Amino acid sequence: MAGEIDTSSMGDALVILGAAGLVIPVFTRFRITPVIGFILIGVAVGPFGLGKLIYDIPWLSYVTITDPEALEPFAEFGIILLLFTIGLELSFKRLWQMRKLVFGLGALELLIIGTSLAIVLAMMGQYWTGAMALGLALAFSSTAIVLPISGTTSPVGRAALSMLLFEDIMIVPIIFILGALGPAAQDGGWEGLVTILWQGGLVVVALLVLGRIALPRLFAQAARTKSPELFLAASLLVVIGASLATSVVGLSPIVGAIIAGLLIAETEYHSEVEGIIEPFKGLALGIFLITVGMSIDLATIWDNLGSILTAVVLVLVFKAAVTGFLLRMMGARRSTAAETGILMASPSETTLIVLAAASAAALIQPGTAQFWQIVTAIGLTVTPLLARLGRVIARRVEPAPELEEIDHSTPPVIIIGIGRVGRLIAQMLDKHERPYLAVDSDADLIEYAKRKGYRATFGDAARGDAMNRLGMDRSPAVVLTMDEPVLAERLTRKLRKEYPDLLIVARARDTTHAAELYRAGASHAIPESLEASLQLSEAVLVDIGVAMGPVIASIHEKRDEYRAKIEQEGALDYKPQLRTSTLEN
Fold first, then answer.
1. Which Pfam families is this protein grouped with (predicted)?
2. Boundaries of domain holding 511
3. Structure confidence by residue, pLDDT tens digits, 108-117
């Protein structure tokens, strides 16, 4: 009847929202990741927790989840939004630069861990097809939990991202292979896999082509309306449409979500999209974590405590050791290898999917699947604790030099990035006795800079309140030196929004990038390719006999020409200053 309310669904929604309102502030206050809180809430309100008592205590139905299966679509949507936002943080160029890590390190990690675990399980009596299914399932690591902890820009984050991307790519082939190996598999199982792959390839190419053409126009139209609701609708349309397109042909919807994020990251609207999607992603991811907690049966764990804990410890230790060893063999520092290995040690939400596929294909018994599902749920629960343990061990195996005390009487200039350009700027500030603090998310660069005497500290400027902790509100200026156009533009826009009066000097790749940085709010954007080209021109003209005066005049004319171009492309009401007046005169 119209007007009736489904009290069961409303009660579940109330429990979820209440859990979010309780978990996030309480765990944030004690500086503990909310991941653990959401999982514990799932244990408490799920069918194996208070849900078992509702027949004896009816009022508990108001504070428990009455239909856990109904939450699964929302949990899956949370993972899709998470992968979409990861795509927003990447770029096609960065992804191409990571191809060796993704298909080298990622492939080795999945193959070696999966094969080794399969051999061990086969030796323990598991039939070889079931052992292979279990080995591959346990080899996966949690994208949903690991990446929010590690980020994607630090050495640990890049290593984790490369392995997790390969795992996400391999989800569908592995599930199809397991289906083909099942005793009830059709003869066309392998042909079905080939069909999925070529159809999926066509869909991916179509998404890339259509996305590059349509997305800038779509979001430009949404931006003209100045309606946040329309921007949100367009964002959800893109991510859901791309996910459905890949899932219709049999690929994982995760693939479509990542592609959608990558395409939007190439537009100037990515930061707006990221800000609008963030609250929804956090809530949906919380629902996923609650469903993980609801799958933990404390009574079963108690009855099989010894074997379950043994399995958890052995899986975690083995995966950490193999991942750390592979990273060391590929040249990673001891600290990076140790921290990444421990962080990636737990199984994944994807493990649960592969276990379900293996059980459906009759490769493993239902009891075996339930045992490893509990092991996986416990592994997911302890992942934040593994992250802390990894950081502690990383500092012990390779301690970094202590940062000398900072004189807080004069606020320092903040240099974001301590690479080649950042170190040169630090030297110039030192020469003129101006305090500075360099910030970088690359632990290797930080350690190198400290050993060379630079004042540097680890931090990811793109995440959380890192800038507030560094005293950005008192700093006279910030200098962006990274050679990552998308990240530089995003940081510029974020800093200008939070600190309207801050002097922001940014390194630009070329004049087009400089115009984008000016639109984002940069005070000065210096196109390095332009200045290098002009200085080379000056040197060759003078040395082949052209008089210095005309050469300098032509250099000024060319700089004025590009200054006007940047003014036009950046929609500025002033001509940008490409070099200081001292250098020009």
1. Na_H_Exchanger, TrkA_N
2. 484-578
3. 999 999 999 9
